[in-house]
């Protein structure tokens, strides 16, 4: 069994990005610039945005954090999105989800200029992905495919089962995995799938993205399968400094011995998601220069 080290791979990619940034700056252009819009004070969102800002610093990007209180109106947020769309010094931006209930996430996503949509959530980017056209790819699916490539894991003709069909993970990932560059035969499973154990046990590549801690057990995994664990659920852990621990969707201890490759949680898909946002921002910056 080979443990896929997402942290190490992401660090390597960060070094590659930092080298590109140096070249960009030495050619007289400005550094790539990412902005993050954060509404409210949700612990998870605060952490994710702080990581994104830190990642930018590490590779030499400029970053801007735009904060709003929970009571910001949809109109105010839309006005900010419009301002960021028109900011010529900004290559890309993200609006951290979830947003408060009184704001339509879909409306905000659709208001973002698709050329600055480095999260890859805008319908134009999703449509381009489906058509196999150049697009900003949603960070988690992008990171997973990059991880498979960098570990030289064969995907062509393999049975890939993805558990979960969300707009940010399962569904875009299913499209990427079936593209000609990857060539997997993809099954998308969800909460209404019958005989899920059996469906999963057919997978050469099993990707768990359902958000249910330790849901995937050894009996659901074929001997020699590649298992990618996307799940990150915060579970209480009073003994830790933060008071919580991240749990994946895979019961790691019993599944790992059956796998040819497996990602850990943390340290697997998470760091690759983060670095994919940097790759998208670099791509946006190159288009703008
Ligand atoms: P989501 O929007 O809640 O979607 C969950 C999907 O899983 C849905 O399609 C749901 O089916 C399916 N599902 C739920 N329970 C199921 C069950 N018992 N059997 C089969 N399918 C089931 O979640 P998400 O945003 O995609 O996130 C999934 C997990 O990945 C979460 O733990 C999240 O924190 C994590 N995540 C991690 C990263 C990272 O960078 N590591 C990034 C994004 C998300 P239905 O459609 O039928 O409801």
Q: What's the number of domains?
A: 2
CATH topology group of the largest domain? Rossmann fold
Distance, first to last CA: 44 Å
Question: In CATH, what is the homologous superfamily of the largest domain?
Answer: NAD(P)-binding Rossmann-like Domain
Shape: globular
How many DSSP E strands?
11
What is the arithmetic mean of pLDDT?
Answer: 97
- Judged by helices, strands and strand pairing, the structural class is alpha/beta
Instruction: Specify the helix fraction band.
Output: 40-55%
List the strand order in the largest sheet.
Answer: 1-11-8-7-5-6
- Sheet-strand content, in percent, reads 15-25%
Order of SSEs: EHEHEHEHHHEHEHEEEEHEH
Could you explain how this protein is built, in words?
The structure is a single chain. By secondary structure, the chain is α/β, with parallel strands linked by helices. It has helices at residues 6-26, 43-59, 74-85, 105-111, 123-130, 139-150, 170-178, 196-201, 252-255, 269-288, and strands at residues 2-3, 33-39, 62-68, 92-95, 159-163, 185-189, 205-208, 226-229, 233-236, 244-247, 261-262. It has 2 domains: 29-113, Leucine Dehydrogenase, chain A, domain 1 (Rossmann fold); 139-270, Rossmann fold (3-Layer(aba) Sandwich), CATH 3.40.50. The protein contains 10 helices and 11 strands. Strands 1-11-8-7-5-6 form a 6-stranded parallel beta sheet. A 3-stranded parallel beta sheet has the order 3-2-4, with helices on both faces. Strands 9-10 form a two-stranded antiparallel sheet. The protein is globular, with a radius of gyration of 19 Å. The termini are far apart. The relative contact order is 0.16. The mean pLDDT is 97. The chain binds NADP nicotinamide-adenine-dinucleotide phosphate. NADP nicotinamide-adenine-dinucleotide phosphate (NAP) binds at residues 140, 163-166, 168-170, 189-193, 196, 209-212, 230-233, 269-270, 273.
